[in-house]
Amino acid sequence: MIHKLRITLLSIALLVWGGAECALAMAADEHNQGRPPMGRPQSPPPPSRPQMPPPQARPQMPPGRSTPSLGVSRPAFDGRGQVLDGRYNHGRYYPPMGTTRPYLPDGYRPYYHDGSRYYFSGGIWYAPRGPGFVVIAPPPGLVISVLPPYYSTVWFGGAPYYYADNVYYTWQPAQNGYAVVNPPDDADEPSAPPDQASESVADDLMIYPKNGQTKEQQAADQFECHDWAKGQTGFDPTLPGGGIAGNPDAARSNYNRAMSACLQGRGYQVN
Questions:
Q1: Which of 5, 130, 132, 200 is a Cys-bridge partner for 237, taking CB atoms 3.0 to 4.6 Å apart?
Q2: pLDDT digits (tens, 9 = 90+) for 222-263
Q3: How many other C-beta atoms are found inside a 10 Å radius of the C-beta of residue 88?
Q4: Distance between CA 74 and CA 72 in Å, rounded?
Q5: How far apart are CA 39 and CA 104, in angstroms?
Q6: Torsion of CA 112, 115, 137, 152, to 10 degrees
Q7: Cβ atoms of 230 and 194 closer than 8 Å
Q8: Phi and psi at residue 98, in whole multiples of 5°?
């Protein structure tokens, strides 16, 4: 009887001890969850490299477009199909001759010549064509009162020509405007502007450009104002005695007043 009791107590003790061991193992398992397994020490993972944003793509230039800082010449066409006019370093874009459009641009000016109608806007000439308008070269002899907003002054034989979009203009004092003319014979060999429009034009006048006019532009303005003042007064300071009979001093004074008025109207200070 006593022997049976001992066996029973021993079995109960074994059961209690086994349950405790199992509980301890489970607790340790929970405590160590997520830790590396025991054994060789684990080195810490290398720090992750910060994610750099993807490099921005270099902006794509339109076909033929060059980077100005590289000093490469400008493209022959712009993004609208216009052609670069690089003659005399003009550097403006215009639609090719023969280009048609359904309507005229804002701010155009109408002109009539030999019974035909023409329209002028931004240095570009148009003529009626069917229901629309076509870009043309204007006929020589057509006179305009104001030059294109962008033009280049080119000198040939001591006289200024005004150039834009393959069209040449010259000042016509008798018509008080600028006439379309044929290209000069030496169009590929322009000359340097003279130091003065004439030897005696500015003898009695001190002329200062107020609007940043270039030397070429000032010479051209003096040349044209000289022609206009000579036509108004009959006095020509390049001729002996002004080329008139009578009192040259009075005629010279009238000439200077006309020159001053003309130059002041073109943005010069005259003393």
A1: 200
A2: 888 888 888 888 888 777 777 787 787 788 888 888 888 888
A3: 15
A4: 7
A5: 88
A6: -30
A7: no
A8: 95, -5
- Mapping DSSP onto H, E and C, the string for the chain reads CHHHHHHHHHHHHHHHHHHHHHHHHHHHHHHCCCCCCCCCCCCCCCCCCCCCCCCCCCCCCCCCCCCHHHCCCCCCECCCCCEEECHHHCCEEECCCCCEECCCCCCCEEEEECCEEEEEECCEEEEEECCEEEEECCCCCCEECCCCCCCEEEEECCEEEEEECCEEEEEECCCCEEEEECCCCCCCCCECCCCCCCCCCCCCCCEEECCCCCHHHHHHHHHHHHHHHHHHHCCCCCCHHHHCCCCHHHHHHHHHHHHHHHHHHCCEEEC
Inform me whether the pLDDT recorded for 93 exceeds 60: yes
Query: How many Cα neighbours within 13 Å face the side chain of 243?
Result: 11
Share of the chain above pLDDT 90, in %: 28
Q: What tokens were used for 61?
A: 């230039």
The rounded distance, in Å, linking the Cα atoms of 197 and 259 is 12
Structure tokens at 54: 């993807």
- Residue 108: the pLDDT is 93
